[in-house]
Write a structure and sequence with these properties.
Layout lengths: L2 H22 L5 H14 L11 H21 L3 H6 L1 H26 L5 H11 L8 H4 L6 H32 L7 H31 L5 H21 L4 H21 L2 H10 L1
Helix pairs in contact: 1-2, 3-8, 3-10, 3-11, 3-12, 5-6, 5-8, 6-8, 8-9, 8-11, 9-10, 9-11, 10-11, 10-12
């Protein structure tokens, strides 16, 4: 990346950051701005952006973004909220989400002739979870009852992590059916279990340590957020090191962090969210 390329990208981020609230009033979100900017800067008449990232770099950035999103979304789900609305949460996530995945499978099979059941499952599971950003306007609107907003927040925080195992097993099954070099569904399920275990240990221990450190003022205010950011990446990397699923570890780690970190730990989550948005 040249200095001019870096200046263009940084300038767009700066402009968006300073005008974001104003633009979001008109439903112009960050993905819209940056996709449009990417098209204009690389395919427009001038095409001033000469930087073409490698597939490896794009993959790494996408994985880091997903790790931070899964961790931060899960860490905001409060256990007491789950207990209060447990019945509705179970209906949303245990009935509504599987039904959505099932309808997606049927739609994929009907639209694409000859598609295998594994690929149809992949399509249904990948498209089923809602993006919390799309419903952000509803969740901050005081005209919407507080309970509805709380349920939407819980659902959007948990649906990605619940759908991720289905997506990963579907990918493994599709690759096996096509005789591609990949792990089978059984191995994928074992990786998911390891990811859950790593997430519980790393996220739970990390949340407890952060809470104690903040309470006793051991952590400097300017670096406490970095500790939580590192914890999310640590959960992901530890799972990979033991051949577990890193994304599930990040999601479960966020749940465990939120449960043990309490309010002191929750105050640091916006740092992780902002970093994920930037990446």
């Amino acid at each position: 990346m040249s200095a001019s390329d870096l200046a263009l990208v940084a300038g767009i981020i700066f402009v968006w950051g300073t005008l974001s609230a104003r633009l979001e009033r008109y439903d112009v979100t960050a993905p819209i701005i940056f996709v449009l900017a990417g098209l204009l800067l690389t395919h427009g008449p001038l095409a001033p952006l000469g930087f073409a990232p490698s597939r490896e770099l794009v993959k790494a950035l996408a994985e880091i973004t997903l790790v931070l999103v899964l961790f931060s979304d899960a860490s905001r789900v409060r256990v007491r909220d789950l207990r209060t609305d447990l019945g509705l949460c179970l209906r949303l996530l245990g009935i509504g989400l599987p039904l959505t995945i099932g309808l997606g499978i049927l739609l994929a099979l009907s639209l694409f002739g000859g598609m295998s059941i594994w690929l149809a499952l992949l399509v249904g599971a990948a498209l089923a979870p809602t993006d919390a950003a799309l419903g952000a306007g509803v969740m901050v609107n005081p005209a919407v009852p507080a309970r509805i907003r709380r349920l939407l927040n819980i659902e959007s925080g948990l649906n990605d992590g619940i759908a991720t195992p289905v997506v990963l097993v579907a990918i493994a099954g599709a690759a096996t059916a096509e005789h591609a070099a990949s792990v089978g569904p059984g191995v994928a399920a074992a990786e998911l279990a390891l990811g859950v275990l790593v997430g519980v240990v790393v996220g739970g221990a990390g949340g407890f340590i952060v809470k104690v450190a903040r309470r006793r003022e051991w952590a400097a205010g300017g670096f406490a957020g970095s500790a939580v950011l590192a914890l999310a990446i640590c959960a992901y990397a530890c799972a990979l090191a033991v051949h577990g699923n890193g994304f599930i570890a990040a999601f479960v780690g966020g749940l465990a962090y939120g449960a043990t970190g309490g309010e002191l730990g929750e105050r640091l989550v916006p740092y992780v969210e902002e970093t994920g948005a930037l990446v």
